[in-house]
Write a structure and sequence with these properties.
Blueprint (H helix, E strand, L loop, with lengths): L1 E5 L4 H10 L3 E5 L9 H8 L7 E6 L4 H11 L3 E4 L15 E6 L3 H7 L6 E5 L16 H4 L7 E4 L8 H8 L3 E4 L4 E2 L2 E2 L1 H11 L5
Parallel strand pairs: 1-2, 1-8, 2-3, 3-4, 4-5, 5-6, 6-7, 7-8
Antiparallel strand pairs: 9-10
Length: 203
């Protein structure tokens, strides 16, 4: 199982997440308590192994701005987390992850209209789009055929529930942010526990 740790803000946490087995790290460039500057993201990314996916998270941003930040920072994927239209997801130089808040099968039908390989299934938006620590009914995803999409499961995942979530949804990847934090900051021990449980390692 692939694991993405989102909302990375410092080199130490990034490197410890990678050492623990993270496959992807997310950098939030939209309004959020986890927002990072392109300069800081670049500094972190320069220290990361090449095989780690570096995902830039954007909300209703202009395509040119996203491409410029991606090139400057060394991003390898872009995650669109706003109300972007299907046509907005075409013509990028990098793979696109499109995020959707899932509350019914109708939301999945909408997601299928998007020309992207990666669909991030998240909880319906709260104060911020994503990172709200609330899960949704995973069985909605298990009932629906999404064969042509790689599902990235997010929304309220924790070290305690990630194994059950994986068993229910069988996603391509799981994505966590607030579920591995303590007092609003990334907690390395929680990151290690999350990755351990997601990958099914029984030590």
């Amino acid at each position: 199982m692939k694991v993405k740790i989102c909302g990375i803000k410092d080199v130490n946490t990034a490197l410890q997440a990678v050492e623990a087995g993270a496959d992807a790290l997310g950098f939030v460039f939209a309004e959020s308590k986890r927002k990072i500057t392109p300069q800081k993201a670049r500094e972190i990314i320069l220290n990361l192994p090449p095989e780690i996916e570096k995902v830039g998270v954007f909300v209703n941003e202009r395509k040119l701005v996203m491409e410029e930040i991606a090139e400057y920072c060394g991003l390898t994927m872009l995650q669109l987390h706003g109300e972007e239209a299907p046509e907005m997801c075409e013509g990028f130089s990098l793979p696109i992850i499109k995020a959707f808040g899932i509350s019914s099968e109708k939301d999945i039908e909408q997601a299928m209209q998007y020309p992207v390989s990666y669909m991030l299934a998240d909880s319906p938006k709260g104060v911020y789009r994503g990172g709200n620590g609330v899960s949704f009914d995973w069985s909605i995803l298990s009932k629906t055929s999404l064969r042509e999409k790689k599902i990235i499961l997010a929304g309220g995942l924790t070290p305690q529930n990630v194994a059950d979530a994986i068993q229910t949804v069988r996603p391509y990847m799981v994505d966590v942010s607030s579920g591995v934090e303590s007092n609003g900051e990334k907690d390395v021990e929680k990151i290690k526990a999350f990755i351990h449980n997601a990958k099914g390692e029984r030590g």
